[in-house]
Design goal:
Layout (H helix, E strand, L loop, with lengths): L9 H23 L6 E5 L5 H9 L4 E6 L2 H10 L5 E5 L12 E7 L8 H10 L1 E12 L6 H13 L1 H11 L8 H8 L2 E15 L2 H9 L3 H8 L3 H16 L7 E14 L1
Parallel strand pairs: 1-2, 1-4, 2-3, 4-5
Antiparallel strand pairs: 5-7, 6-7
Helix pairs in contact: 1-2, 1-8, 5-6, 5-10
Length: about 270
Amino acid sequence: MTSSFNIHDATGYEQLMGRWSQILAPLFIDFAGLAAGERILDVGCGNGSLTFALVRATDLSEIAAIDYSPVFVEEAIRRNTDPRVKIRQADACALPFKGGTFDRALALLVLHFVPEADKAVAEMRRVVRPGGVVAAAVWDHLGGMPAMRMMVDTVAALSEAGRQLRSRYCFQPMMQPGEMKRTFVEQGLMDVTQTQLMIRMDYKSFDDYWAPIAAGEGPLGKYVARLDAAERARTDAAVRDAYQSGRPDGPRSFANVAWACRGIVA
């Protein structure tokens, strides 16, 4: 396995995370940089949040996008209307491109789901020309994602399985301060810089927040899907209580932070 992300349905993913990726993508592009006429690789394109933001950003000559999940690849291809965009299924740790093919290789909200993330960074460096850019961003699950911490902290209070979920979720690859920057340096990238990107996740109601997780999407959904009926009902009620926090159901807004890192190919 070269991805630990759990995906069943592209529509469910869009409600879980795709809508937020679309908001984060322009901030990430500004950090990574772009120039007209460049050839760009989107590693782990998902439904195409970054891919199609790149289409709108500037006049690029080519955008290649890959993802490990056939569900994501099929959906991104379905959505694509731009002939410059080429989407295919591939492994981030074994990119199917010759060395020096691209001006930039970008990975938005991907590396923390790649068990051997250092290999993915090495591959991104390999396929970018000298002087080109490798950039990536991942959520800060431990300290910068309260919307999802709300759920994992709640289930951690309910059971040992929930505590194990929290430990896994909060310490995925590349998420700790400085970790991604160190990996970029270790893989031979130069002038490495790291920053934080923040967006807000605005939910209409508890159901808007909970529906994709309850349907089994993502790592949190995978945990919920394995619960028996009694524990599932207990979890649903406890997370609803955490979301509502003693007030009527309705809109809630959460600030969420991603680590972003950028380096130059020597």
